[in-house]
Batch of 2 targets.
Target 1
Amino acid sequence: LEIQHDLRSAIERSELELYYQPKIDGKSGQITGAEALIRWHHPKRGLVMPGIFIPVAERFGLIGALGNWVLEESCRQLREWLDQGLRMRVAVNLSVHQLRQEDLVQRIRRSVESHRIDASLLTFEITESVAMEDTQATMKAFAQLAHLGSTVSIDDFGTGYSSLAYLRKLPARQLKIDRSFVMDLDTSTDALAVVDAVIKLAHALGLRVVAEGVETARQRDILLSLNCDELQGYFFAKPMSAAKLTLWAMVDD
Ligand code: G
Ligand code: G
Ligand code: NA
Ligand code: MN
């Protein structure tokens, strides 16, 4: 497999790039931050999506290096935005591998300090299935990240099997409703009932709710009527380069 060999040198050759997808505040319609989503500009294949190369990175022991790069690049970009007068927040996806890294939080602290940013500008997204798979590592990492001042977010909620007792104990601040529920919102009363219940549950536990995969005005309107706190999806913006996001955020202001 050639791609595995190429991925090893992709980091050194700066072929990786972070795209950013805005999250929108439900009440004000203003941008609250952006999720960092990795892309690979392959010299021959062109733009390669993470769905292709993240599994390869996981299989060949490259996911650690990839995760470290994402973290460092997010902090570097946050500093650049601050220098431009833009107070952006960035959400970073963490893999199960990173969650189990002994030095994850030290590494984050080092990146944050070296770029002179505040850890509160970072959100860490961990999928529900990963969070429930290794509850001990999750609980420890979540507590440390929260202590650092970052926001912890449970991603793709609704696709895993959560214990409500455990969910209640997790020091998370945000819950992202999986886009499969959002997609069906305007056609399925079942999806509507599930999303309504999830938002109420999350609010009862003191969590802010983000809906991902919002593609239509009708989905947005339903989510707002259900008191969803933040919205993300193609209806507002697709993931874009940092340069494009800078313009987007300034126009939005
Ligand atoms: O647009 P999208 O194709 O970017 O992302 C596909 C999947 O890849 C999503 O599940 C997303 O969470 C994951 N992903 C994107 N960027 C990163 C990253 O930097 N780290 C990890 N671990 N996963 C990512
Ligand atoms: O698993 P995670 O939630 O991190 O994945 C984010 C993924 O969802 C990325 O691949 C991103 O490109 C994609 N995405 C973001 N907004 C939308 C949307 O409105 N519709 C669809 N179909 N995908 C979206
Ligand atoms: Na995510
Ligand atoms: Mn998600």
Note: The domain at 2-243 is CATH 3.20.20.450 (TIM Barrel).
Target 2
Amino acid sequence: MGRVALVTGGSRGIGAAIAKKLKEDGCDVAATYGGNDEAAAAFTAETGIKTYKWSVGDYEACKAGVAQIEADLGPVDILVNNAGITRDAPFHRMTPEQWHQVIDTNLTGVFNMTHNVWGGMRERKFGRIVTISSINGQKGQFAQANYSASKAGDIGFTKSLAQEGARAGITVNIVAPGYINTEMMSTIPEKVMNEVILPQIPVGRLGEAEEIARCVAFLASDDAGFVTGSTLSANGGQYLT
Ligand code: NDP
């Protein structure tokens, strides 16, 4: 039996690539999603990975969802906090709703999920928590005060938990992607992509979801036991920390 891995937002984009990679590496994988049943069904049909629907922003739903996955697959060894949203607006036009939606999903969602696997990992003296932050949590971004705050918050959360988990065999790390070729990017006009975004990326291209998945797979592996509290930037050289 492989490790049991739970990937939030694992039905599409980067999360789907992570779920597939962990399965390839021998894990028993569960993927969650927020509401897009069609994408989740297509993902399960393609990969055989079962999907579970609830909002990571809802603590009680996370508790029930984790319990269901543990009943189906066994105790969660690896949690990948990947679910995330954007609600961009320049700050003078950002609504409290846009602020709260993003914080609730991207930051409180990470608390909700991690809190519901943490006790079991402590008891079993093994755990891997990998959270997907963003380059924009490291450097800030125009019209993303909510998103950048949430993703920077994930980094602080991770550094604190790394200290708390160390003696219990739990590592806690961040992968911080730059611009990745997913649906989140498809809304960007071609002119902006070619004239503004690509020139900022020294390697001259967007990243691929599979490249992020390979970073996550390393941090989630048994081999990465000495790596904790770290932020692995995967951004084509766009922002050097
Ligand atoms: P996508 O929009 O392609 O997929 C998002 C996934 O998260 C979907 O499975 C979605 O479910 C799920 N999700 C959204 N909200 C919730 C919620 N409240 N509860 C549970 N699941 C939810 O995103 P990406 O693959 O582009 O991004 C994945 C992560 O990577 C995010 O955290 C994002 O911030 C981060 N990131 C992405 C970058 C990029 O260039 N794409 C760059 C840097 C970071 P459903 O399908 O049901 O909506």
Note: Residues 8-9, 11-15, 32-36, 39, 55-57, 82-85, 105, 132, 134, 177, 179-180, 182-185 surround NDP (CB under 6 Å).
